[in-house]
Amino acid sequence: MNVAPEFDYSTLIASSIHEVKNSLNMLLNSIDQVVTEYDEETCPAYKMFSQIQYESKRVNDDLVELLAIYRIRNNQYSANIDQYSLSDFLHENIGQHEAMILNRKIDYKIECNDDLYWFFDRDLLTGVISNVINNLYKYTKDKLTISAARDEEYMVIKIMDNGPGYPEEMLISNDDNQKSISFDQASTGLGLYFSRLVAELHKNKSRHGFIKTTNEGINGGGCFSIYLP
Amino acid sequence: MAIWSLKGKKVLIIDDFQEMRVMLRTMVEPLAPEMIKLAQNGEDAIECLENNKFDVVFCDYNLGKGKDGQQVLEEAKHRELLSYDSIYMMCTAENTSEMVMGAIDYLPDDYISKPFNRTVIHARLKKQLEKKENLKDISKAIADKNHKKAIAYCDKLLQDTPPNRLDLLKIKGELITTLGNYDVAADLYEDIIEERDIPWAYLSLGKVRYLQDDFDEAIEVFEGLVKENSSNVAAYDWLAKTYEALDELDKAQEMLNIGVIKSPKSLIRQRKLAQVAYKNEDLKTAQSAFEHAINVGQHSCYKQPDDYNGLAKTLVDSGHADDAFNIAEKMAKDFKNDSNAEMVAAITKGMVHTSKGDKEAAEECLQGAMELFNQNPQGLSTDIALELTDLCLSTGKDDDANEITKNLVRNHHDDKKLIERTKKIYAAAGKSDAGDALIDKTTTEIVDINNKGAHLLKDGKLEESIELFMKAARGMPDNTVVNLNAAYSIMMQMKKTGKIKKYSSRVESYLERVHNIDPANKKYHEMMEMLQRLSSANTKAKAA
C-alpha cells in the first residue's frame, strides 16, 4: 500500500496520544473516586478496582515516557526549565498518587526544606518520579520516603522503600552512566533509561545531571536518586 | 476541606470534552466560587469572556475545531477581556514544551498536564493565587503603564531576597528594557548568567543587544542558545530578526525555516517566513508559508488580509493569476463585514487584472478600492498602501496615487525607510520628479506645523498650540511627533490651570497611539512619567 506523501507520523502519534490520554484521564479519575469512596467492605470488587487503578496509571506513565523519549531523541523536545519549590513539587507528586498510597496502606514521608528551590523541567521530572513510585508499589513492604536536598553543586531527589532492593544488574552508580541499561525487566528498564535521558537534559555550567540506584534505602531497600545541576 | 477558597470569584472552564468539563467543575466546586461557567469551544469561551470578568480560567489547549487554548488566551488578553490579576491555567494532554514554543506575546500563568486530580488542581490554584497576591502592586502599576513605579515595587520585594527572586528579576529586566535603559538591563541579565545558565536570561540579553543595534553581539548570544538546545525556537526567531536588520535576508530565511519546521503552528512566524522568502524571490517557500499563515491564522485574532494579498502576489509572480484571483475572493469570505479587508481584496483583484493586462477590470477594482480608501484612509497597512500607489501610477491614476502618498507621508514623515520605498515606486513609474516634489512638500508642511506649534508654546499661547496640534493629530493620527506634541501642549495647559482630571484621558489617548505605533519610543515614557507626576501632585494637593 502506498503511504500518502504528506503522511506525518509524529502528528498522528501526537493527536492519537491526545485522545488516548483524555480517555485515560477520565478512567483514572473515575477509578480514583471509586477507590477513595469505597473500601473492601462496601465494595466486593474493591481489590480488582485497585488493580485496575494501578495498571491504568502505569499505562499512562509509560505512554508519557515513550512520547517524551521519541521527542528527545528526535530533537523535538525543548526542555522547559524553570525554578520551582521542591516542597510544592514533591507534595504535588505524592498528591497524584494519593489514592494508590492510601489504598495500599503505604506509610509515606516527604523530607524537604521549605526554602529549597531548584531548576528543572517539571513535566519530565514528574514522569521520572511517577515511574519510580509505580515500580515501588510492586516491591516495597509498606514504606516510601521521598526527599530533596542540596548536594554541593547539585540538587538530589531520593526515593526510598523498604523492599528487597534492586537486583545486581539494575544497580547504577555515578561513574557508570554510560553503562547500558538492562531491559530484562521491561518497565524498570524503560523507566531507568528515561530517567537517565531526563537527567542528562539538565545542564548548568558544563555539568550534567545523572541518576543512581543503590540498595541504601530503608532497611536495605531500593534507593533511586536523580542529581540535577 | 480547604481553608482557603474561591469565594466571590468567577471561574470559566473550557474543554471540548463534556466529561472533562464536568469533572473539572466537580473539582472546583468545593472551593465555593461565586460562579462556574462551562464553554465547549474557543468561540463560546470568547463569548463568555465578553460577558463576564472571570478571575480564573481553566482552558484545554486542544479544543478540536476552531480556536485552540493559546488563541483564546491571546484574543482575551489582546482585547483586554481578562484583567491583569486573573489566572489562566492551560490544561494539556501533551507535553507543554510545544505550546511554549508557539506562544510569543502571552503565556498562561501555569500549565497542568493530564491526568490531574483534585489535590493537584487545588495546590496549583492556591499557588497561583498566592503569586498574584504577592505581585499585586507590580501588576497594577504595569497595567497603569507606570513602569517606574513597578520597578520600585520589584526592588522593594527584592530587598528580602525572597525565593521568587528570579521571577522578580525577570519582570524587572523586562520593565527596564521597555523603558529603553538597555545598559542597565544588560547588566542585570549578565549578573543572572554569572550565577547560573538560565536560557531566558540569555534570550533577554540577546534582545537587549539587538535593541542596542549591537547585532554581532546579539547573534553570538542567540547562536549560543541554539547550540546548547537546538529546539529553542525563540532563539531562531531572534536570529532571523537580527539577520533581517543586517539585511542578510538569506540567513534570516534559513533561521525562520528551522523555526517553522520545529514549531509550525505560529502565525507570526509563518507570516515572517513568507515575507522574507518573497523578498528573496523564493516563490515556492513564500507560497507555502503564506498558505500556512492563512491556515493557522484562521481562528486567530492576529489574522490579516495582508497575508492573502501576499499569497496572491506570489501566485501572480509565479504565473498563477487565476489562483491569485480565487485567493482575493476567499479573502472577502474569510473577513465578513470588514471594510479594510474589502479594500485589500479590491486592490488584490486590481493587481491580478493588471498582471493579465485587463485594464478595464483593473480600473474598476481600483476605483472601488479608492472609494473605500477615502472613507477610511487610516485603515490600510503601509505595505498595502504602497502597493495601491504603485497600481494607481501604473494605470495612470496619478491623482489617486498622490492622495495615498500624501496620507502616508503625513502619518510617517520621520520613517526614512518608508519614504525611500515610496520614492522608488514613483521612480519605477518614471515619475521621480513628481514624487519627490510631493513628498518634500508634504514633509515641509508637517515640519512647519510642528515648528509653529512649538513657537506658540514658547510664547505661552497654550490654547492656540493645543488647537493646532489637535487638528493636526486628527488628520495624521499615526504621526508620532504630532501626537507627542499634542499630548505635551495639553499637559502644559494642565500644569498651568491645575485642571488635571478633565484633560488627562485625552493626553493618555494621544500617548497610547504613540505607544502602539512605536513601543520603544523614548519620548513616550518621558511624557507618561510627566503625566503621572501631574496626576499624583494633584491627588496630594487635594488630600492636603
Distance between the termini of chain B: 48 Å
Write the CATH fold name of the domain at 304-308 and 319-448 in chain B.
Serine Threonine Protein Phosphatase 5, Tetratricopeptide repeat
The end-to-end distance of chain A, rounded to whole angstroms, is: 49 Å
Major beta sheet summary of chain A: 5 strands, mixed
Overview of this protein structure:
The complex is a heterodimer of chains A (229) and B (544). By secondary structure, chain A is α+β, with helices and mostly antiparallel strands. Chain A has 2 domains: 9-73; 81-228, Heat Shock Protein 90. Chain A contains 6 helices and 9 strands; from the N terminus they run ααβααββαββαββββ. Chain A has helices at 9-37, 46-73, 86-96, 98-103, 122-139, 186-201; strands at residues 81-85, 107-111, 117-121, 143-151, 154-161, 203-204, 207-208, 210-214, 223-228. In chain A, helix 1 (9-37) runs antiparallel to helix 2 and helix 5 runs antiparallel to helix 6 (186-201). The termini of chain A are far apart. The model of chain A has no long low-confidence stretch (mean pLDDT 85). Among the domains of chain B are: 10-134, Response regulator (Rossmann fold, 3-Layer(aba) Sandwich), CATH 3.40.50; 304-308 and 319-448, Serine Threonine Protein Phosphatase 5, Tetratricopeptide repeat, CATH 1.25.40; 460-543, Serine Threonine Protein Phosphatase 5, Tetratricopeptide repeat (Alpha Horseshoe). Helix content of chain B is 71%, strand content 5%. Chain B has 27 helices and 5 strands. Chain B has helices spanning 18-28, 42-51, 69-78, 97-102, 118-134, 136-143, 147-158, 165-178, 182-195, 199-211, 215-228, 233-245, 249-262, 267-279, 283-296, 305-317, 321-334, 339-356, 359-375, 382-394, 398-412, 416-428, 432-458, 462-475, 480-497, 501-517, 522-543, and strands spanning 10-14, 35-39, 56-60, 87-92, 110-113. Chain B has a 5-stranded parallel beta sheet with strand order 2-1-3-4-5, sandwiched between helices. The longest helix of chain B is centred in the C-terminal third of the chain and has 27 residues, at 432-458. The radius of gyration of chain B is 26 Å and the shape is globular. Classes of the chains: A alpha+beta (229), B mainly alpha (544).
